[in-house]
């Protein structure tokens, strides 16, 4: 196993357990209920997604519309917080392929990021900036300062411009690698040149396989660790896959079913 990096998102004696949008396999994703259940299970960190409402509230929701996860329709960015929270965030969740919808009418709403910070004051929060609009950066950074969470968040984005803007605005917060940084290390590692990698990220948060390319290999993990970069893999839901990745030396696993990983780790 490769040497684990001296990095707050790498555990020296084990693997970090990330609850993907809480405990998404059993509860409506990104809802307070889902997050609470994941925390109660014993996760090390929550992985959540954020957008911003038209009246400037940073809210916890994956999609840029409310259609898939709530009873409403429309763009998150076109709604006020009151309009957004008028929709039932448990409406579409079904554990049995549409036979039942147990969380309809249970009062679940899209939470604000501030509410999440307040509810879980001692937990690492992994935040994916899903709104690829630079207008979210300043309100988001102000919120991080106001809530005094700079020492317990990590931020990532699939959009390079959004991630770069956040890094400029809040350099003290650790960030996940951009797609370009991931691609650079993957190529260098496969060529046996991983020692030449340069990047700003403290962690790589990646799928095990992308298209036909296997990203996470023993060599890749070793090369990342050489540069003090942690490796977190998403979204892993089967115990046999979790075990294989643990054997490769990854630092964290993101799962819809974090209890499976916790059981595997004997926690």
Structural features, described:
The protein is globular. The relative contact order is 0.17. The two termini are 21 Å apart. The chain has 267 residues and is of the alpha/beta class. It has a domain at 16-174: Phosphatidylinositol (PI) phosphodiesterase (TIM Barrel, Alpha-Beta Barrel), CATH 3.20.20. α8 links the parallel β9 and β10. It has helices at 32-41, 81-84, 113-119, 137-146, 160-169, 179-190, 218-226, 239-248, 258-264, and strands spanning 16-20, 45-52, 58-60, 124-129, 153-156, 203-207, 209-210, 213-214, 230-234, 252-255.
Estimated structural class: alpha/beta
Mean pLDDT: 96
Q: Give the number of helices.
A: 9
Order of helices and strands: EHEEHHEHEHHEEEHEHEH
Which CATH architecture of one domain? Alpha-Beta Barrel
User: What would the principal axes of the Cα set say about the shape?
Assistant: globular
Sheet having the most strands: 8 strands, mixed
**Strand portion, in percent?**
15-25%
| CATH superfamily (homologous) name of one domain | Phosphatidylinositol (PI) phosphodiesterase
Question: In which range does the helix fraction lie?
Answer: 25-40%
Distance between the termini: 21 Å
Annotated CATH topology of one domain: TIM Barrel
Q: Over all CA atoms, what is the radius of gyration?
A: 18 Å
């Amino acid at each position: 196993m490769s040497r684990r990096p001296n990095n707050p998102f790498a555990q020296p004696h084990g693997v970090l357990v990330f609850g993907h949008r809480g405990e998404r396999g059993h509860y409506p994703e990104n809802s307070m209920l889902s997050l609470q259940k994941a925390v109660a299970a014993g996760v090390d960190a929550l992985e959540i997604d954020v957008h911003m409402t038209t009246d400037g509230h940073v809210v916890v929701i994956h999609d840029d519309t409310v259609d898939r996860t709530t009873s409403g329709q429309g763009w998150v960015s076109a709604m006020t917080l009151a309009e957004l929270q008028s929709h039932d965030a448990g409406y579409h969740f079904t554990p049995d392929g549409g036979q039942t919808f147990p969380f309809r009418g249970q009062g679940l709403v899209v939470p604000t990021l501030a509410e999440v910070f307040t509810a879980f004051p001692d937990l690492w929060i992994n935040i994916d900036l899903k709104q690829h609009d630079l207008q979210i950066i300043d309100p988001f950074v102000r919120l991080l300062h106001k809530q005094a969470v700079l020492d317990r968040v990590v931020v990532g984005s699939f959009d390079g411009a959004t991630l770069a803007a956040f890094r400029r605005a809040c350099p003290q917060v650790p960030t996940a690698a951009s797609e370009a940084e991931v691609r650079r290390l993957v190529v260098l590692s496969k060529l046996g040149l991983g020692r030449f990698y340069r990047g700003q990220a403290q962690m790589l948060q990646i799928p095990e396989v992308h298209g036909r390319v296997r990203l996470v290999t023993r060599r890749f993990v070793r090369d990342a660790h050489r540069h003090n970069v942690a490796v977190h893999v998403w979204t892993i839901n089967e115990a046999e896959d979790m075990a294989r990745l643990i054997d490769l030396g990854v630092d964290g696993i993101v799962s819809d079913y974090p209890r499976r990983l916790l059981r595997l780790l004997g926690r």
